[in-house]
Amino acid sequence: MKFRFVVCFSLFTFYASGQEKNLTYYYNQASEAYRAKAYPKFYEMIKEANLLHPYHQGILYQLGMAAALTGHKVEAIETLKKAILIDASFKLEGLADFNSIKDTPEFRSLLELQREWQRPIIHSDTAFVLHDRSLHTEGIDYDAASKTFYVGSIHKRKIVKVTALGVATDFCPEGIDGMTSIFGIKVDAKKNLLWACSSPMQEMKDYDSTARSAVFKFELSSGKLLEKIQRPKMEKDGVFGDLVLNKKGDVFVSDSQTNTIFIINEKTRHLEPFFTSPDFWNIQGLSFSDNEKFLFLSDYVKGIYRLELKTKTLTEVTCNLDVSLKGIDGLVYDDHALIAIQNGTNPRRVMRYILNADQDQIIKFDIIDRKHPAFNEPTLGVVAGKTFYYIANSQWGGYDNEHHIKPDNLLQDIVILQTKLH
Prior knowledge:
By secondary structure, the protein is α+β, with helices and mostly antiparallel strands. The chain contains 6 helices and 26 strands.
């Protein structure tokens, strides 16, 4: 979504005002030093910026450049690798700034790695297409009993259902009971329920800045609205990015603004904070392990975390492979692996990360899709049987500067892709 891109790619968007000032200061000092060819100072200042924001690909790239210019050759290769694994478009060849390392085997290997990550890989084909181009979709789920997909609309503030024959109809009316932009959707077939989380976004029809995020409970078979549970009023507004159910039917929601996981209290019927951590920068996707011992979370800036539900112990999932875990939006656990939709990388990609026995480290990865021609910001997905379905082109960029949706001829039909997993 657009908010995630601002957090991820804007150098100057940060979470604490003091850190924002320091980051801006060091970055500006580094830029001035580079222009003056004061390379030792360039290195010193950009290194300080990297300490404040070690995940920003632009800073990593410039740190690699500064390291090359000041004789720190090993550091140059290491940081440039981190940068291109996030954004493979950074220029490496033909720059005098890299003259000190350009003839080394390590730099040649880096160029090969960059070319590999720029290469398209396509394993998915089209499952179905929604021809309403102004829907602007984000969340998706599937009901196996009725063979029906449910897709949420950011712009039109509604949920659409799609039959096995590809026929799309409204599941609920637009903006019912003040419903705003739809993000995560989950079907609870056993209880005949559909849950959806929504948050007010400037891209939605009839935007209301006073509206609050909420979770909506529908009767699955009829589409009747059964309950609306609003987010509690807090100092900071929230954005509900994803929603997940455990086997009991408890509802967990991620708030990417306050980095809080909420849960619906069954007795009070209120949304209550369940867990947060200062380690979080921008939480998004949620998914339980098979035994529900762990809740996996994607942090759009930092990577993947594992929360042990019983003890509320948070562990960062590590990865020592040549891949970046940054920019993960949708996250789905499947067969001891995590399927990650990464729309915050360049190129965008959908990955399958295989976990170790303790489920705290990625030991292997498969690329499901990379640089797929249908991509226009893929978002969330669902595993149905042995097939993974996901939204390929949610089109967060389909608005003008005033957040008005563009004409249909500048938009695309909504494509849902599918790929076999086993």
